[in-house]
Design goal:
The complex is a heterodimer of chains A (273) and B (225). By secondary structure, chain A is of the alpha/beta class. Chain A folds into 2 domains: 133 residues, Periplasmic binding protein-like II (D-Maltodextrin-Binding Protein, domain 2); 90 residues, Periplasmic binding protein-like II (D-Maltodextrin-Binding Protein, domain 2, 3-Layer(aba) Sandwich), CATH 3.40.190.10. Chain A has 10 helices and 13 strands. The longest helix of chain A has 23 residues. Chain A starts with a helix and ends with a helix. Chain B is mainly alpha-helical. In chain B, helix 3 crosses helix 5. The chains are: A alpha/beta (273), B mainly alpha (225). The interface between A and B is large, with 50 and 45 residues. Chain A: Its main location: other. Chain A: InterPro entries: Iontro_rcpt_C (IPR001320), SBP_3_CS (IPR018313), Solute-binding_3/MltF_N (IPR001638). Chain A: One of its GO terms (molecular function) is ligand-gated monoatomic ion channel activity.
Chain lengths: 273, 225
């Protein structure tokens, strides 16, 4: 094969992938650019417009994070579920449509317009902010260390030196430990539940994850304990596409209304007390 | 050792959801496999074509879809198209297409291998009887090749069933994702993993048995038994 044919083969391979999929992929979005036109009227925002028309809000989440979002049978349940439903109502959406996917697919999914908003206990971080926008925080969480009940050797961050610690890939825990506990051996897993399993089977010495999730697990299983001091103060926020600044504003207003009306306190009470 | 509590599998709600998602797994896989047979045939004939352009086209397809992981193809297809080109994609449709295109590359080699394994004399015999090249292919070569394709194609279908668990990464709730959702709710990890392992096992062995039965029915001679 000479140089020219080699190049064209490579080009063909790529274009074939695109054409084949484009041909059978589905419908084109007609108003994909609507949010970027910069018109200041609220109704110009593509998502707000969609909500006004269809009365539905499409929410992306990874429903494997008890007690924030999980699935019992066919039903989505949890703190995030109740709260986003209250927020959606304030936004004028009667129906919330949940799209379940793996955590690492949430930001690409949002960018690909698979849903309007991410409500999946996602921490607001500077790195994520470069790709997407966040609403105001709706819940303070924090990273905490979970160990086996009979483990007395690990009392804090310093004790993790040289130990194996399980963390969920793509989460804040990874970054935090890489910066603050350099000599820790991280075992990165895909799912929250795998993290617990790693600890349960003795493959790791500790798990670093959000406090509420750890607490819920301890409450249900009783074989683990959560160390009393949290490592960080973190804040959960809703992820929104950068082009929908108008929608972000509306979500923040809706969130404020839910807090002022006392609904927020009720939901917190229901899930964490 | 941990205590297992299999009663959670016995709950009707859980059985129903597992079977439902198993059905989806089977449907997506079979649809993908059907597409893969069509693509595989096109690619294999492209590869055997006398026209250079077709041969290169088929080779390019093969090298791309056999050379990249299915997981990457899924992500490119499902998230890449909307982000880069603004083309909307439907999860299960993307899933079927990705399975079909990926498996099509492998199927094409099974088809080509089977056709080229038929003795050259068969083609010569057909031609000397007055059949055209196409007629000989259709009436003599392909029927014999199909028998030889059965075993590797059964393999391909079985591995596709297992690969379909990757669809969970693009919001398709199939058997594996459903189990993960239940594990997250109940923390009964082993129980659900064993349950879906059994379900995958049953389906794949059923496919294996059907494949064997077909082979037995279509085989003409008793040679090599």
């Amino acid at each position: 094969m000479n140089k020219w044919t080699k190049k064209s083969v490579a080009l063909l391979a790529i274009s074939m992938l695109i054409f084949l999929t484009a041909a059978c992929g589905g419908k084109e979005t007609s108003n994909s650019g609507a949010g970027q036109q910069g018109d200041s009227a609220a109704s110009q925002d593509a998502v707000l417009k969609k909500i006004a028309e269809s009365k539905t809000l499409d929410v992306g989440l990874d429903a494997t994070f008890k007690p924030f979002e999980y699935k019992t049978g066919d039903k989505y349940e949890g703190f995030d579920i109740d709260l986003i439903q209250a927020v959606a109502k304030e936004l004028g959406a009667d129906k919330v449509n949940f799209v379940d996917t793996e955590f690492k697919g949430l930001i690409p999914g949002l960018q690909a317009k698979k849903f309007d908003i991410i409500a999946s206990s996602m921490y607001i971080t500077d790195e994520r902010k470069q790709t997407i926008d966040f609403s105001d925080t709706y819940f303070p969480g924090g990273l905490s260390i979970m160990v086996k009940k009979d483990n007395d050797s690990i009392k804090g961050l310093d004790d993790l030196k040289g130990k194996k610690v399980s963390v969920q890939i793509g989460t804040k825990s990874v970054k935090y430990l890489e910066e603050n506990a350099k000599e820790t051996k991280l075992v990165k897993v895909e799912k929250n539940t795998e993290m617990f399993l790693e600890l349960e089977t003795g493959k790791v010495d500790a798990v670093v994850t959000g406090l509420p999730a750890a607490k819920t697990y301890v409450k249900e299983k009783g074989t683990m304990k959560v160390l009393p001091d949290t490592l960080t103060e973190e804040f959960y926020g809703y992820g929104i596409r950068k082009e929908n600044a108008e929608f972000t504003k509306a979500v923040n207003e809706a969130l404020k209304k839910v807090k002022d009306s006392g609904q927020y306190d009720q939901i917190v009470k229901k899930w964490f007390e | 050792m941990q205590q297992f509590d299999f009663s959670v599998i016995g709950e009707w709600d859980n059985i129903r959801l597992l079977l439902q998602s198993l059905w989806l797994t089977v449907v997506y896989t079979f649809a993908g496999f059907a597409l893969s047979l069509v693509l595989g045939t096109v690619i294999s004939f492209g590869q055997m074509s006398k026209l250079k352009a077709f041969r290169y086209l088929a080779l390019a397809y093969l090298s791309w879809f056999r050379g990249t992981p299915l997981l990457v193809q899924l992500f490119l297809l499902y998230y890449g198209l909307p982000i880069v080109f603004g083309i909307d994609t439907v999860p299960w449709v993307s899933g079927i297409i990705a399975l079909g295109m990926y498996s099509g590359a492998y199927a094409s080699q099974i088809i080509r291998g089977a056709i080229q394994s038929i003795d050259k004399g068969q083609m010569e015999a057909g031609r000397s009887l007055g059949f055209s090249h196409m007629q000989t292919m259709r009436k003599i070569i392909i029927p014999q090749a199909v028998t030889r394709m059965l075993a590797p194609m059964t393999n391909e279908l079985i591995s596709l069933i297992k690969n379909s668990s990757l669809l969970s990464t693009i919001t398709v709730v199939e058997l594996f994702r459903q189990a993960n959702l239940m594990i997250a709710d109940t923390y009964k990890t082993m129980e659900f993993l064993i349950a879906i392992a059994v379900l995958y096992y049953l389906v794949n062995n059923l496919i294996g048995m059907v494949g064997l039965a077909l082979e037995r029915r279509l085989s003409t001679g008793d040679d090599l038994r």
